[in-house]
Design goal:
Layout: H1 2-12, H2 16-26, H3 29-43, H4 48-60, H5 74-83, H6 86-98, H7 100-105, H8 112-116, H9 119-129, H10 132-144, E1 148-150, E2 165-167, H11 169-177, H12 187-190, E3 212-216, E4 225-232, E5 236-240, E6 246-250, E7 254-258, E8 265-269
Parallel strand pairs: 3-8
Antiparallel strand pairs: 1-2, 3-4, 4-5, 5-6, 7-8
Helix pairs in contact: 3-4, 3-5, 4-5, 6-10
Amino acid sequence: MQVQFEWLKAQFSTQQTQIDEINVKLNSSEFAHAVVLAGTEAQAGTTQEKIEEMASVLVRSLAPSSEADYSDDLTSFIRDVINLSHKDMQVLRLLADIYSDVIRVTPNLNSPNVFTEKMDILRAAVDRSMHRDDFYAHCVRLGGFGLVIEVVRNTSRMAPEDYCFRPTRRGLRFLQLLGEQNSGTDPFAARSSTAPVNSRPSPDSGLRESARIIVAPISSSTSQAEYSLKAVDGIGVVIELGNGLPVRVPRSDYIESRDEVTGKPKLLLTRKYFQGYFPGHEHAEEYFLPR
C-alpha cells in the first residue's frame, strides 16, 4: 500500500485542484466501505497477491477522473479482485495487450471489425499460452463480471470454430486500477496538467549506466535485489537479470528512490512484471525478479 501511495503522491503532489479531488474521494463513504471489504477479506486469509491488488485498486481509485470515464461502485472492483482467478486475469491482460493499439484509436469500442481484424494475432497468442477452449471458458467467465464481451462474428475473418472477445470499458478500467499500462491510455497521466514525474528524463536523476541498482517489486513474494543498470534514456531503464537477460522498464512503471541503508539508487516498481511479458518467457507465471 505504501508504494501505491508514493505513486499517487508522485503523480499529483504539485496540483492543488487534483489534490482536493483526491481528498474528497478519500473521505467518502464509498471509499470507506471498500476499505472495510478489503480489510475483511485480508483478515480472512486471502493471498498476498490479492491483498496487493486490492491495495492498488483502492489507491488508484483516488486519482482524479472525468465524467467520460467508466464509473462503478468501488466495492464492486474489490469483489472482482476477490473472485477472479489467476487464469481469469491472464486472459483479461492478454486481450488488453492484443487490442491496445485498437483501443487507443477506437476508445468507444463500437466497431467490431477493428477487433476481428486481429483474429490471426489473437489465435496465435492464445495457442502459445493455453488450450483454446480454456481461453473461451475464461472469456465467458469474465463476461459474467462485465469485463469482456463477445464481438459480432465476421465470417470473412473467422472460422466457424472461432470466437472473438474484447475488453469492455469496465474491464479496461479494472486493469487501470490494477496499474496495468496496456489497457488503452493511462488516465492518470492524461489528467495531469504537466507531464507525470516519470514520463521524461529528470536532470536530478541519480541513475547512471553500468551502476548497481536496487529494484523493489510491489509483491512481497519477491524481495528487493540488486541488478546491473545497462541503459538509462528518455524511455526508461534497462536492467540486466542474473541470467544476462536485459529487461526494459518504462519510466511510467517505476519511482526513483534511494536505499537508506546502502545509499544506492532504487527503483520502486509501480506494477507487477511477469516473465510472460518478455520474449522466451511467454508461459512462465512467476515474476521475472527472483526471490
